[in-house]
Structure formats: C-alpha cells, structure tokens
Amino acid sequence: MTDGFPGAGLTPVRRAELVTADMDQIADLVRQLYLQHTASFRCPDPARVEGRAQSATVAGLTAGVLGYDGFTYSLTSGPTDSAMAFLATKGGGAVTSGGEELAMASGRAYLYPTERPAACHQLHGDWLALRVSWDAVVDLAEEQTGLPGDALRFEAMGPVSADAERFLAGTAEFLCGQLVTARPGGISPLLAAAWTRVVAGALLHTFPNTAMTAYYLRGPSRVPAATVRAAAEFIQAHADQPVTGAQIAAAAGVDAHGLQHAFRREHGTTLDSYLRRVRLERAHQELTAADPAGGTTVAAVATRWGWAGPARFTDAYRERFGVLPDDTLCR
Asked: Residue 285 and residue 325: Cα distance in Å, rounded?
C-alpha cells in the first residue's frame, strides 16, 4: 500500500493496486484491506487465473474495485469491526451467515455480516467495495434516530428494496470513481469526513437495521434556543475542521438527536446543511479577499472547504450568491 502525495492541508489517500495470477496474493490483499479470513480456491486451469484489485483508503473509509477470472474464491470469516458492502458488476456467488443465504448476481449488492461468522463463495466476476468504520455508522444512526449505539444491528445482508439497492450502487460508483479512478493524492479533511458519513448513511438506508424501527424510542428532548445558539457558535468556530454531529452536540451539552430536531426548529435546516452553508460563506469570504494574481484558484478554495470538485461548488455558490465564484475572485 502506498500513500499519495497530497497538497498542503490535504489528507493523504493510501492506495493498493495488484494484478496477479497468484491467488494467495489476492487473498492477502483482501485481508489487508477488508477482513481477516480463511481462503480456498478452485482453479480448473491455472493459466487462465487473473486477479485485479485497486483500492483507496482515506480517514477510515476504503473504496475498492476487485476482479477475479479463472478461479472460484471461497472464504470464511468471523465478526468484523467494520461495515462493508459489495456490489457485483459482473459474475456472482453466494454468502451465508447465521442461517441466512443470499445469492449474488450482477447488479446486486450485499452487506457483509458484521457480528457473526460468514462464508462467501465468489465466482469469477467484478465487484465494487465500500468499507467504513463501525463507529461512524453507530454515531450517524444515533444522531439521526436517537438509537443507543449498542442497540444498532444490521438484520439481513440484502437490501430493503430495489430503490435502496440502486442508491447503494450509485454511492459505490461515485466514490470508486472519485477515489479509485480519479487517483487523487489527497483530499480535504472536510471532504473525507463528509464521504465517510455518505457511506455510513448509505448502509443505514440500504440494509435492514434496528435504526429503521427506532420509532418506539422516546422522542428527542426539548433543546432550548440558547443551546442551539451555542451549537451554531461552535460550528462557526470549527467550520474548517471535520467536526461531526456528535462533537457539535457534545460541545453544546446535549444529545445529537435532540440537537438535530432543534436545528430544524430554529434554523429550518439540518446540522449538516447548516455546516455546509457556513463553509460556503467562508469560501465566499476567501474568494472576496483573494488576489487572483497571487495564485488563488476556485478549485483550491472549493477543495479546502469540502467540495468534491469545482462544478458542484460552482452550482452551490451561484445558488447562494447569484454570481459565479470566478466572478468574485476576479473583481
């Protein structure tokens, strides 16, 4: 695995790439990137074996593209400390765990079991993979629903619906494109944190879990307006850092679920949207104060304040300020 060469203030992207006919090398890389397991292979013709793997890891988030030809890859594993989803783009197989068996085919997604042993039998094919820390998923579920962290469980490996599966597929394709195909040397810490939440949210949205039925929990506690103001002040003071909803709530002395509801009441928006709005204001201030002859670019400012690229930043900027960011910079 190699580190990228990020610019100043960027979080490095660690890469792993492998093309090999050695099946054990492929299994070793999967162990390094995704999960510890015992592997076995069936290979009718060793001359036809090819394994391909590309991955990018940043701040606890891994996106990868895997491919196998000429052999069947079977594995068994125990519980993991991460949440992982795989999307078959070609080929298929089956995964079993705790009495549940899920057939995999092209276009289908599955969640690898986190809390119990599993066995996976993959035929030749290609896969997109997403891996994120379990803590990131737990924190987001608690923030969104109030579900205590130790109560979160995923209850099945398959998606809740075809629409949810398409949502997960779109997320995997986007992030593999941004991190694996585009090969950035580094990305903004703000963007790394945002993409981690995107993956955690996609898993919670796509696969059956106890946060989906958290309606039975007591509602959020009443959060005074003064506490909301304290949270807003914390956001203003830390907008250049990859703060989470849990950190903002802790600074304000309330739980994240209650603060989310209070923000909607006081500001008509979510914590994430408010934080993004503040960062857009900071980008506007930076562009207004910048000397274009000094080397400042819209792309650099967009990256610094957490946008994936100039196009998305330009759309948000024009909607908010009524002008293009280039026009602000060149005034």
From this structure: 11
